Automatic annotation (TrEMBL):
Belongs to the aldolase class II family. MtnB subfamily. Transmembrane segments: none annotated. Pathway: Amino-acid biosynthesis; L-methionine biosynthesis via salvage pathway; L-methionine from S-methyl-5-thio-alpha-D-ribose 1-phosphate: step 2/6. This is Methylthioribulose-1-phosphate dehydratase. One of its GO terms (molecular function) is methylthioribulose 1-phosphate dehydratase activity. Catalyzes the dehydration of methylthioribulose-1-phosphate (MTRu-1-P) into 2,3-diketo-5-methylthiopentyl-1-phosphate (DK-MTP-1-P). The keyword tRNA processing does not apply. Its EC number is 4.2.1.109. Zn(2+) binds at residues 104, 106. It catalyses: 5-(methylsulfanyl)-D-ribulose 1-phosphate = 5-methylsulfanyl-2,3-dioxopentyl phosphate + H2O. InterPro entries: Aldolase_II/adducin_N, Aldolase_II/adducin_N_sf, MethylthioRu-1-P_deHdtase_MtnB. SUPFAM superfamilies: AraD/HMP-PK domain-like (SSF53639).
Length: 211
């Protein structure tokens, strides 16, 4: 699929703003995490997205921060930049959901919550107001946020994504690793990510309070 220059520039600008915002919260420790925004048309077998390049300090802005890749996670332009090591996970989420943006961060609370409920395979949240951020309006709604094992072999994780996705929950957690949150666009993905992080902290603090 051909990508217009202005589409590429718009995606990079969105990622730059989101990166600065989340970096200021300390959500990218030690160059961790990755962000992507889909660019141009979409078919499950053919799409393009802009993603953070590997190993960059996300607290600073440089011309080498982002690149375009295809549905297989391969760069679409000549470049020496390497896409994030977890690009294949983004590819699978896009293929399966048609999302417009995916944000992945490592925080203390998403790690703690994932370990607390790792054996259960999902993080339960019961009746918390911010569940509404996922457009779930049931009174006293209950949700389960899926957890996947954190294998060193990224393709092995990517193979599990399809079985883990819950249509009304726009996120998956890797155990002792971090959250992948997505949405129809960057604004929605950011809203979902912020809601997940609030819920992770709530779940963990409630657990500690009740011990």
């Amino acid at each position: 699929m051909s990508i217009l220059l202005e589409e590429k520039q718009r995606a990079f600008a969105e990622l730059r703003d989101i990166k600065a915002n989340l970096a200021a919260r300390g959500w990218f420790p030690a160059t961790s995490g990755n962000l992507s925004v889909r660019v141009g048309g979409f078919e499950p077998s053919a799409f393009t997205f802009a993603i953070t390049s590997s190993g960059r300090d996300k607290s600073v802005q440089t011309p080498e921060d982002f690149l375009l890749v295809n549905e297989k996670g391969l760069p679409t332009e000549a470049t020496s930049l390497k896409p994030s090591a977890e690009t294949l996970i983004h590819s699978e989420i896009y293929r399966l959901t048609g999302a417009g943006a995916i944000f992945h961060v490592h925080t203390i609370f998403n790690n703690l919550a994932s370990e607390l409920y790792g054996e259960r395979g999902s993080i339960p949240v019961d009746g918390v107001e911010l569940i509404k951020a996922f457009n779930i309006w049931d009174e006293e709604a209950q949700i389960e946020i899926p957890i996947l094992p954190n294998y060193a072999d990224i393709p092995r994780i990517a193979e599990l994504v399809e079985g883990a996705i819950v249509p009304r929950i726009p996120g998956i957690v890797l155990r002792k690793h971090g959250i992948y949150a997505w949405g129809a666009n960057a604004f929605e993905a950011k809203r979902h990510l912020e809601a997940f992080e609030f819920l992770f902290e709530y779940v963990y603090r409630l657990h500690v309070m009740n011990k």
